[in-house]
């Protein structure tokens, strides 16, 4: 806050003395300003390496590069999570069907179980033990 006030006071003092500057000096100051601005370093548009900044955020690229990179990465992470979930549930289902099929092939079941209406429920209860 003090720096802003100090800058404001300096600007006011310079503006107050502006009419006292001769036109030739004003033109030279303007030319010097333009020369200084032309020599000022411009930010390079190339990607910067990943750095860990002071505000504890990981910057993946230079500012202005790939504005939708975070959204694309979030969507990719979401799709990967959905695929892993689908794969895990399908593996569980295959495991349950495998248990039922192995019980049928082992022929450990009584003959009446094949005719029972709740055959699958009986197999699921039996396989849970």
Account of the protein in words:
This protein has a two-stranded antiparallel sheet. It has two domains: 1-39, no CATH class; 66-129. The two termini are 72 Å apart. It is rod-shaped, with a radius of gyration of 38 Å. Helix 3 packs across helix 5 (119-128). It is mostly helical. Strand 1 (51-52) and strand 2 form a beta hairpin. The mean pLDDT is 76. It is built from five helices and two strands.
How does the SSE layout of this entry go?
Elements: H1 2-16, H2 23-39, E1 51-52, E2 58-59, H3 69-106, H4 111-115, H5 119-128
Antiparallel strand pairs: 1-2
Describe the structure concisely.
The protein has 129 residues and is mainly alpha-helical. It has five helices and two strands. The protein has helices at 2-16, 23-39, 69-106, 111-115, 119-128, and strands spanning 51-52, 58-59.
Q: Work out the radius of gyration.
A: 38 Å
Major sheet size, sense and barrel closure: 2 strands, antiparallel
How many domain units? 2
Computed structural class? mainly alpha
Strand content: under 5%
Share of helix among residues?
Answer: 55-70%
Uncertain runs are none
- Tell me, what's the shape? rod-shaped
Order of adjacent strands in the largest pleated sheet: 1-2
Mean pLDDT: 76
Q: Enumerate how many helices there are, as a single number.
A: 5
Number of strands: 2
Distance between the termini: 72 Å
- String of helices and strands: HHEEHHH
Question: Keyphrases for this structure?
Answer:
single chain; 129 residues; mainly alpha; 2 domains; two-stranded antiparallel ribbon; 66% helix; rod-shaped
């Amino acid at each position: 806050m003090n720096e802003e006030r100090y800058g404001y006071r300096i600007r006011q003092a310079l503006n107050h003395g502006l009419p006292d500057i001769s036109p030739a000096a004003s033109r030279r100051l303007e030319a010097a300003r333009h020369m200084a601005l032309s020599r000022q370093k411009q930010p390079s548009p190339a990607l910067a390496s990943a750095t860990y900044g002071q505000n504890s955020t990981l910057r993946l690229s230079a500012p202005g590069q790939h504005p939708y990179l975070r959204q694309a990465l979030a969507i990719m992470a979401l799709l990967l999570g959905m695929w892993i979930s689908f794969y895990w549930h399908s593996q569980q289902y295959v495991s349950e069907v495998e248990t039922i099929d192995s019980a049928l092939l082992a022929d450990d079941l009584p003959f009446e179980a094949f005719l029972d209406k709740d055959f699958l429920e009986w197999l699921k209860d039996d396989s849970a033990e």
